[in-house]
């Protein structure tokens, strides 16, 4: 094999009688390079996009939620909470209230999802409590008194934490007051009257996902129970698992333990269609871009075919000197593989470099209200890179078979008859 590899490298370095062969060889190498580079970058983008969304979803939401099967508020939630926390795969559990409301500040209004939490318990379940632009979730339980509150007859206003985009749309900053309106209201002799209460913005959070930052607001769980007239009941219990990627197995075990009265939904089932769509899109894009490498492989075929024609006399002399058909076959296969390997190497190197730089410096900005994220993330997956390089080299190998076989079948007498 050393002899065949030596000749393959010698042929590649040699000056061509026909410039066209050198040009086609260069184009073939560049084609493989561009194809591999495009594949690496696109798959890095799609992996980064899916991973970034997964982290944001898991940051703003728990790994699973437990509700009553009949849809009513949960009364004996402490018993359920202790039962769930006893499971070996559960890290923490926290009760929550989930309702809808309307925020009004001046003439601006916005519909919101109101979530009542106990910050001390929820901090162990979700990470949104740590992503603050200003203020703190702890102030929900003990809102600070501002200058002028001491002179008021009433206690300081209860606190509310809202998303950054929601604060911007309502023109709010920490310390300002806002009215929360319940769409359900209260029944009076005059009919249904919307229930409204004033709150003080004690914190502004930022998750990086526009849907959450523009439509979520948090109250303390006791305040939410009072405002929505839930007494000592809650909407459900959210849980955090040791391994969120085993959520389906843990969900099944806990559901069996709690019985038919409750049902549990994990984050994977709630977002299954979304991540399946991303996975399918990644596969389709991989197949489409693989055709770029396939087109470049036709360039390898053309290059080798023209080289066989140019080296017709050399092949005849080598065979006359004792070279076997297998050796001739291996020479041209090695030559085509060298082109493919070089193109694959430089393509992978270029793709990895572009992905790393673009991710590190966040070069590609996005509109958060359209794509849920503010910049295009890149995540390099070693398995994806290995698969791309393997398939690229394999396609290059397939491209060498026909011209190499044609060269190996050449008869010495015909090759040197007119020399």
From TrEMBL:
Span of domain MacB-like periplasmic core? 25-256
Q: Which InterPro entries match?
A: ABC3_permease_C (IPR003838), Lipoprotein-release_system (IPR051447), LolCE_TM (IPR011925), MacB_PCD (IPR025857)
Subcellular location(s): the record lists: Cell membrane
Q: Which UniProt keywords apply?
A: Cell membrane, Lipoprotein, Membrane, Transmembrane, Transmembrane helix, Transport
Leader sequence residues: none
Q: Which residue numbers delimit the ABC3 transporter permease C-terminal domain?
A: 286-410
Question: How does this chain sit within the bilayer?
Answer: Multi-pass membrane protein
Q: Does the keyword Repeat apply?
A: no
**Transmembrane annotation, as ranges:** 21-46, 283-308, 329-358, 378-402
Tagged with keyword Aminoacyl-tRNA synthetase: no
Q: Which family does it belong to?
A: Belongs to the ABC-4 integral membrane protein family. LolC/E subfamily.
Q: What is this protein called?
A: Lipoprotein-releasing ABC transporter permease subunit
Taxonomy of origin reads: Bacteria, Bacteria division CSSED10-310
């Amino acid at each position: 094999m050393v002899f065949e590899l030596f000749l393959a490298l010698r042929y590649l370095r040699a000056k061509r009688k026909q410039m066209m062969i050198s040009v086609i060889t260069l184009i073939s190498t560049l084609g493989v390079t561009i194809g591999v580079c495009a594949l690496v970058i696109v798959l890095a983008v799609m992996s980064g996009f899916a991973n970034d969304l997964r982290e944001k979803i898991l940051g703003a939401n728990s790994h699973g939620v437990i509700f009553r099967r009949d849809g009513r508020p949960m009364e004996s939630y402490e018993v359920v909470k202790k039962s769930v926390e006893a499971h070996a795969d559960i890290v923490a559990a926290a009760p929550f209230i989930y309702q809808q409301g309307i925020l009004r500040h001046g003439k601006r209004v916005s519909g919101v999802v109101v979530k009542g939490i106990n910050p001390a318990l929820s901090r162990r379940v979700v990470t949104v409590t740590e992503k603050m632009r200003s203020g703190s979730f702890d102030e929900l339980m003990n809102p600070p008194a501002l200058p002028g509150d001491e002179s008021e007859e009433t206690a300081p206003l209860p606190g509310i934490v809202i998303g950054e985009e929601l604060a911007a749309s309502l023109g709010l900053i920490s310390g300002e007051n806002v009215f929360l309106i319940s769409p359900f209201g209260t029944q009076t002799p005059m009919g249904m009257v919307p229930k409204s209460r004033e709150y003080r913005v004690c914190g502004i959070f930022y998750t990086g996902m526009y849907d959450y930052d523009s439509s979520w607001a948090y109250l303390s769980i006791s305040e939410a129970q009072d405002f929505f007239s839930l007494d000592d009941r809650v909407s459900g219990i959210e849980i955090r698992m040791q391994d969120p990627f085993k959520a389906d197995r843990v969900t099944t075990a806990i559901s069996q333990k709690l019985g038919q009265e409750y049902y549990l939904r994990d984050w994977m089932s709630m977002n299954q269609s979304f991540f399946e769509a991303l996975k399918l899109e990644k596969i389709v894009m991989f197949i489409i871009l693989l055709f770029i490498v396939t087109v470049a492989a036709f360039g390898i075929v053309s290059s080798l075919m023209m080289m066989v024609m140019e080296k017709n006399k050399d092949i005849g002399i080598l065979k006359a000197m004792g070279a076997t058909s297998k050796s001739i076959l291996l020479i041209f296969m090695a030559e085509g593989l060298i082109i493919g390997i070089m193109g694959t190497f430089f393509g992978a190197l270029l793709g990895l470099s572009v992905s790393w730089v673009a991710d590190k410096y966040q070069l590609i900005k996005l509109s958060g209200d359209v794509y849920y994220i503010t910049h295009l993330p890149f995540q390099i997956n070693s398995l994806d890179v290995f698969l791309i390089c393997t398939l690229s080299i394999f396609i290059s190998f397939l491209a060498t078979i026909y011209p190499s076989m044609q060269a190996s079948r050449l008869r010495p007498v015909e090759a040197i008859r007119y020399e």
